[in-house]
Each structure stands twice: as C-alpha cells, then as structure tokens.
Amino acid sequence: MAKQLIMPPDNLQERIVYMERVRQWNFASHMKRKVYVQTFGCQQNEADSEKYLGMAVDMGYEQTDIPDDADLIIVNTCAIREHAEKKALSIIGQYKHIKAKNKDLMIGVCGCMVAQEHRREELKMKYPYVTFTLGTASLHHLPRVLWEAIETKKRLITTDSSEDFTTTVAEGMPVHRGSDYRAWVSIMYGCNNFCSYCIVPYVRGRERSRNKEDIISEVKTLVAEGYKDITLLGQNVNSYGKGTNTDFADLLAELDTIEGDYWLRFMTSHPKDASHKLIDVMANGKHIAHQFHLPLQSGNDVVLKAMNRHYDMERYMDSVLYMREKMPDVTITSDIIVGFPGETEEQFEDTLKALSCVRFDMLYSFIYSPRKGTPAAEKEQVPDTVKGNRFDRLLATQNEIALSQNSPLVGKKLRVLCDGVSKGDSQVYSGRTEGNKIVFFDGNPAMVGQFVNVKINKAEAFALWGKVIK
Ligand code: SAH
Ligand code: SF4
Ligand code: F3S
C-alpha cells in the first residue's frame, strides 16, 4: 500500500482562516498594499516563490517589481554556496533604508538560508528590521506567521517544525506563475542523500513525494491552460515515490499520456537513480523532452566516494551510453564541482577526461564552497588559487566541447519555444529548443509563448542562431 504523505487537514484549515484575516485587514485599510518577492537559488526556490506570491496576492496584496513601493518584502534565500548567502544578506542589508521610510513595511526572510540556526541568529541580532523568517518546509504557514506579526507587532524568527521537515506535503496553495507558457511543478521535496559537500538535506528536510493524483491533475490543468514547457522539480526527482508502490518512470509515463502540444522535462536527477526503465520511458514518450540533466560532480571514483555520491564513472557512463543509444538526439548537461577537499591534480584531470568522454552539451561548474555542518567542510581545503586555476581549465575544456556539440546542428530545422525579444537586441527574438539550448532568430510578438520552426545557420558554444521557416 502506498504511504500517503499529505498535508494534515488542520494545517489547511489554519491557512484558510489566517488568509481570510489578512485579506480582511488589507481590505479594511483601504490602501492597496504591495508585495515584492526576491528569489535566489534554484528552480525549486522559484517554484516556492510563485506560491509565496500566490498566497500574498490571495491575501489582498498587489504584486510590485519595485522593492521601495512594497509593504511586504519576501526574500527567498539560497544556501548552496557562500556567495549565494552573501548576496541575500547584502540585499537584506539594503532594505534597511526602505524600512526607515516605511515603518509598516514587513520583511520576511524565507528559504534555505534561514533553516540554519547561525543565520537565524545573525538575522535576529544584525538585521532588527527583519519581521519574520520561514523555512522551506513551512511556506504554507505564511498566512499565520504574517497575521501573528501584524497582530502582535513582534518579530517571529522561526524555522520548520520537525513534522513539516520530515513528512508534510502542503497541497492546494495558490500559485502566481511567472509565465503563461513555461511552468514548474514540484513533485517531491527534500533530499536524503547527504552528499558530503551539500547543505540541501539540512535545509530542505527529508524526501517526501506528492501524491500522483495531485501531480497529474496539476499538469492536466497546465496543459489545458496552454502551458507548453512543464518542468517537474525535485532535489532528487528520480527518487520520486520511494517507499510507495510507484516510481518516477511510472509517473512520467502516465503524465505523457495527457493530450496536448507540450514538452515535459524534469530536474534534477541523481545518477544513482537514473534507471534504464526511466530512459526507456523518455525514449518512447510523446512529450518528454530528450534532455537529461545528470550532475556528475567529479570524474574520479575516489572523489565521488568522498562526496558520498553512490556511483562511479562506470555506472555513470552506462547511463550516458544507454541514453545515446535510445535517444541519439539527447542533450546531456551536468554539474561539476572543482576543488573538493583533497582533490589532487590527477583527480581533477580525471574530471577533464570525463568531459571529453561524455561530451556534455552544457555544464554548470562550481568552485567548492565549504558549508557549515557538512562533513567536507571539516576536511583540509584546496587553496583558492588552485581552485581558480582548475575552474578556468574546466571552462576552457567545456567551451570547446559545447561548440563541437552545437556545430552539427547548423543546417538543421529545430522546434523552438519562443520567449520574446532577446536581452541585447530588440530586433532579435530568443527561445529554447527541446534540449533547452538557446536560439536567436527573426521573431515577432505573435510568436511569444508559441512553438516555431527555426533553421539553424550559426552555432556557438552557448547559443544557436537561425531563421524562422514555415
Ligand atoms: N539536487 C541536485 C542539485 C543540488 S545543488 C543534485 O543532486 O544534483 C546544485 C549543484 O550545486 C550541485 O549539483 C553541485 O554541483 C553544486 N553544489 C552543491 N553544494 C556545493 C558546494 N558546497 N560548493 C560548490 N558547489 C556545490
Ligand atoms: Fe545535495 Fe546531493 Fe541532495 Fe543533490 S543529491 S541536493 S547534491 S545532497
Ligand atoms: Fe539553493 Fe536551496 Fe536550491 S540551497 S540551490 S535554493 S535547494
């Protein structure tokens, strides 16, 4: 029997009650209070921010893009690397001036950073104008915490309850989506893997999966509303359903039967759970994008073991070869960490060799950043200069590979989902392929949010160029 992990009903009731109170309070004030949500970090955080915004809008706030105009600011933070935390703290620091102008401003700091006790202490002591904090597993408590802050005028520096952190899956939250043709759908929360460098399991709690029926109904609605690119999200998306009688491949196969013209993709997968069954479902699917983001982290087995990744290069290459056999057009992307504690020059060179062997279409590379409380942070560190040097060499190697992966696409016709005018040039439109590659082309406003066919005439390492064809 499937273990049903659902939101306790009294939690849902709590949310409805407090949302109504805040809504009435906003209504009674006769002023149009505004909310500004600032997001750091990964797609999971973006998806969470759409829920924060959804709840705030439902409670009577109007969305603004200008923090100075806001009466409620929510900063959704990331803790993956030190740089991400520094950036969030610096922005929160700047909000002091807005608070000085508007004493009724409420600032909530949410997300991964505040799940750490030392960061909550820091916010308590050094940022006295921060009104409340909420951990990632507590976002559905926003209405209650907001109402308590309004009523008591006290600061509420809180974090996740152990129940929320381990079992709660909050359903039914209003979502204010940032796009009307690309959508995120969280299908599971948390991570149990405890890779030795990573903070995520400490700040996002234990793995818990949404019910299949809830996911299917959400995706059905999105397709019916005209969404064309739907990404299933989870820290470890292919461990969906563990401990129940379903798995990620089954879920994907079932979602693929939904009628419509759309792409379905997912991230992030863990190589240890990338099964042939999953790859078969992708290859046989109608809507499933032939794109696989499979973070390798290192190309050396000793380092992989020290990272607690539970696979080796042989296992990883098996997945890659099977994918390429079943889907010759597959785009494979990855994450690499350089300068993991103890990484030797030879071990780093194994990573370079792995890049040449796998030939990723795109790579997200990171310099290792020690995270307080994780085992790797206690180990002897690689000097910064060595890390920097390795990082540069990694990028140089990957740039050549990416270019050689993109070059054969010249002359090909690709289906592209149009995003609108490109950032640099209002005459040029940009979009993404099924493999999530960026394409620049001669678009027009009617194409935004639509699929167009583009004939590729130029390829670079990070983008393709082409002309729209009928
Ligand atoms: N759950 C996903 C990704 C999580 S974070 C996975 O397991 O693949 C995204 C990426 O950040 C990771 O893949 C890793 O490459 C990087 N990362 C995580 N912790 C890091 C750290 N302490 N320093 C540098 N990069 C890190
Ligand atoms: Fe972090 Fe590893 Fe979990 Fe990914 S699988 S979130 S890298 S602990
Ligand atoms: Fe950052 Fe949390 Fe995502 S730490 S990368 S926002 S899961």
Q: Which structural class best describes the helix and strand composition?
A: alpha/beta
Bin the helical content: 25-40%
The count of helical stretches stands at 14
% residues in beta strands: 15-25%
Mean pLDDT across the residues is 95
Radius of gyration: 23 Å
- Hetero groups bound? S-adenosyl-L-homocysteine, iron/sulfur cluster, FE3-S4 cluster
Using the alpha-carbon principal axes, give the shape. Answer: globular
Largest sheet: spatial strand order = 2-1-3-4-5-6
Assembly type: single chain
- Cα-to-Cα separation, first versus last residue: 51 Å
Main β-sheet, in a few words? 6 strands, parallel
As residue ranges, the low-confidence spans are 1-6
How many beta strands in the DSSP annotation? 19
